[in-house]
Amino acid sequence: MPVEMSLRERKKERTRRTIRLEAFRLFQQQGYTETTVEQIAAAAEVSPSTFFRYFPTKEQLVIADDQDALMVAALAAQPRGQHPLTAIRNATEAVFTAMTPADRAFDQERRALLHHVPELRTAVGLEFQRSIELAAALLAEYTGRPADDFDVRVAAGAMVGAMLAIATTTPVNADNVGHALELLRAGLPFDDGPP
């Protein structure tokens, strides 16, 4: 059962969300590069110092994945004994099912910026490494193995690599993520011929 957020936590989350929504609105209107932190702060009706309390950089505003905490909780709710990739697929489906259409659209827009704005390409590399660390931690928690276990690290890298591979050509949604995880679990069965 979800824990109720305090009034202070709800206000902080509302401010964070407003900053991000106003930033993305400005990115659409005038472009990522042309949008300044000062403009974002003014549009969100906060000071630049408040902006920096929530996001250390403009890049971090785009990199931040709001689904991470939801994924951690969804995987923790999965019954033990499933194949880890099946558990992650089920957790992913739960997260995407719980997202509102507006949240899904925002996430797609965020991913598009990461992959299509040249200034964010370095950030993609950092996000890739952060995602591997998160995936390894999730797999380690689920399997009871250490996060630096060779098999855990390889599986985490394969999963994140699969997500990166599909992110630039197809929507990252429950169906596509699930299909990618099924392919990994099946051992990438290319010998079966084209689909």
In the CATH hierarchy, what is the class of the largest domain? Mainly Alpha
Distance between the termini: 40 Å
Average the pLDDT over all residues and give the rounded result. Answer: 88
Major beta sheet summary: none
Structural class: mainly alpha
In one word, what is the shape? Answer: globular
Rg:
18 Å
Helix fraction bin? over 70%
Please give the number of β-strands.
Answer: 0
What's the number of domains? 2
CATH architecture of the largest domain: Orthogonal Bundle
Please give a handful of descriptors for the protein shown.
Arc Repressor Mutant, subunit A, mainly alpha, 0% strand, Tetracycline Repressor, domain 2, 195 residues
Can you tell me about this structure?
With 195 residues, the protein is mainly α. The chain folds into two domains: 57 residues, Homeodomain-like (Arc Repressor Mutant, subunit A), CATH 1.10.10.60; 124 residues, Tetracycline Repressor, domain 2. The chain contains ten helices and no strands. Helix 1 packs across helix 2, helix 6 runs antiparallel to helix 10 and helix 8 packs across helix 9. The longest helix has 24 residues. The protein is globular. The mean pLDDT is 88.
How would you summarize what this structure contains?
The chain is an all-alpha fold and 195 residues long.
Give the helix/strand layout:
Elements lengths: L6 H24 L6 H8 L3 H7 L3 H6 L4 H9 L7 H15 L2 H16 L4 H23 L6 H18 L6 H12 L10
Helix pairs in contact: 1-2, 5-6, 5-8, 6-10, 8-9, 9-10
